[in-house]
Write a structure and sequence with these properties.
The protein is an alpha/beta fold. Helices cover about 50% and strands about 20% of the residues. It is elongated and about 130 Å long.
């Protein structure tokens, strides 16, 4: 509306200027005519000098206004082109050159409002996966390059569609058609787009893999107005992220129920924290002789009505609800309270990516330990794989400051996702925990054998420890030992149990009773 008003004022100004010049010319011509009609020619053409001056002035005035008319017309034509160019630029996102949010939403609303019986629409909400980690790891110029790359692929794979950037790393695509569009057709378009992204983007000397999560909603099936269509597409986008990202999801009515259930679970999770229904269980970590050297603290939730809710259900919900930081401090506080009643060994606590990015992490952790006079040297902070993806100088400096305060650092689930050996140079650490998927494959896969041996050798030369996770059988133990691992964790030595089920004097987990842990475990 504001842009239309600006254009009207521009047109009105042009019309006024032209009108003023034309009126001036007309007035001068009338004055010229009046002068000649009233001149006395009886004594010759020019009676005196006054007449000559008047005629000269009128002639100059008419000539000036005529030239001004032509000049103004040329300037207005030039200004009109420039105005249209600036107006077009104001409708575009400066970085990616697709429509900006305001223009996209406005045009989408107009198109949907004007929709006839034979007009159909498909809305795609596209969110770049792990974009924050790209910015944190490679810098904002690299993030900008990724956004430009995604915008180029959207225009290439959705030709003729309206493409816009809604903000940050989120784009939208609106397709209008005279024939009905099916979900299968929309998902095939998304698959082609995903294949285009798989070509990777050049960031300096690196080629960076890019993926996106997509939510799809169709009009009129999933909504007839912009507001209903975008809400449903957003729910479908949420489902794509929940399903592991790098995929597309078509809106379904039962998504409304899923979201309501998740919101209810979030409320119950908050209540469980207040009522202290979330409990910490401890799983032993042992050395090569089976002697206890540490515990890992693992959160468990026994719901009064739903029973035991697994961590792989409520932890992702907590992450999406931005509660994971609160839960991390909740675990740290409970561990600090339990430590006086545990054997004299260290306890590992998992840190999320969100917590690691918090500038006051060290202060909060030290305050929690100070409440129970617990030494930071008793605590090992395990950095999850997602956290190590976002490594930069600030994060590495924060981890170093935690080490300086007395905490030890473990790289958890090493080998999963995007682990690279260069992370062993970028991150300060004391312990590497190799993911159980590698331990299970030892002796059966040559690449796994080489990978584990390389990690063990790096750790040995740097004076660090390697923990083999997922030791469930004696064969797993023998293979991990043969690969060079010196610490072990898994059901073979004990399942997670609550504090009251742990003997403070028990240090030997190598010759455990056969039934130990099976009856009492909370895994």
């Amino acid at each position: 509306m504001f842009k239309n008003l600006q254009k009207k004022w521009f047109d009105w100004g042009a019309e006024f200027s032209f009108s003023a010049i034309l009126f001036g010319l007309f007035a001068l011509v009338l004055a010229f005519d009046y002068f000649f009609r009233n001149v006395d020619y009886t004594n010759g053409f020019f009676i005196d000098i006054t007449d000559a001056v008047i005629i000269t002035l009128l002639s100059v005035g008419i000539l000036y206004l005529a030239i001004a008319h032509v000049d103004l017309k040329g300037k207005l034509r030039s200004l009109g082109k420039r105005y249209n160019s600036l107006l077009a630029q104001s409708e575009r996102d400066v970085l990616t050159n697709v429509l900006n949010r305001e223009t996209f939403v406005s045009q989408a609303k107009q198109a949907l409002e004007a929709r006839g019986k034979n007009r159909f629409f498909a809305l795609f909400l596209v969110d770049v996966d792990h974009f924050k980690q790209v910015n944190d790891t490679h810098g904002h110029p690299a993030g900008d390059r990724v956004l430009v790359f995604v915008a180029e692929k959207l225009r290439a794979h959705f030709p003729g569609a309206m493409v816009g950037r809604l903000g940050g790393d989120e784009f939208a695509v609106l397709i209008e058609h005279t024939d009905p569009m099916t979900g299968k057709w929309a998902e095939e378009l998304c698959a082609d787009f995903a294949a285009g992204l798989a070509g990777k983007v050049n960031i300096g000397a690196q080629r960076l893999a890019v993926s996106a999560s997509i939510g799809i909603a169709l009009a009129p099936d999933h909504g007839k107005t912009w507001s209903s269509l975008v809400i449903n597409a957003d729910m479908a986008l949420y489902a794509s992220k929940k399903n592991g990202r790098a995929c597309s999801t078509l809106f379904k009515d039962d998504m409304l129920t899923d979201i309501r259930n998740e919101k209810a679970l979030v409320r119950e999770l908050r209540a469980a924290m207040l009522l202290r229904h979330l409990r910490v269980a401890y799983q032993p970590i042992v050395d090569g002789d089976g002697r206890l050297i540490a515990f890992e603290a693992l959160l468990r939730w026994r719901h009064p009505l739903r029973g035991v809710i697994p961590p792989d259900v409520f932890i992702p919900v907590a992450e999406r609800a931005l509660m994971i930081g609160e839960i991390g401090y909740y675990v740290a506080r409970q561990v600090a309270e339990d430590i006086p009643n545990l054997p004299e060994v260290s306890v590992s606590i998992n840190l999320s990516a969100i917590q690691i990015a918090m500038p006051d992490l060290k202060e909060k952790m030290l305050d929690i330990l100070a409440e129970t006079a617990t030494s930071p040297q008793r605590i090992v902070l395990e950095i999850t794989e997602s956290a190590s993806l976002a490594v930069n100088e600030r994060i590495a400096g924060q981890i170093s400051s935690l080490q300086d305060a007395g905490f030890r650092i473990a790289l958890d689930d090493f080998g999963m996702g995007y682990s690279e050996f260069n992370q062993l140079r970028a991150l300060p650490y004391d312990v590497i925990k190799i993911d159980k998927s590698y331990i299970c494959a030892l002796g059966t896969d040559h690449v796994t054998d080489v990978f584990v041996s390389a990690v063990v050798e790096i750790a040995r030369r740097c004076g660090k420890y390697v923990v083999a996770e997922g030791i469930e059988t004696e064969d797993d133990l023998l293979r991990a030992r043969a690969a060079g691992c010196d610490r072990f964790q898994g059901y073979y030595f004990g399942k997670p149990v609550f504090l009251e089920e742990i003997s403070r004097d028990r240090m030997d987990y190598g010759n455990k009773p056969a039934e130990y842990g099976r009856k009492q475990s909370v895994a």
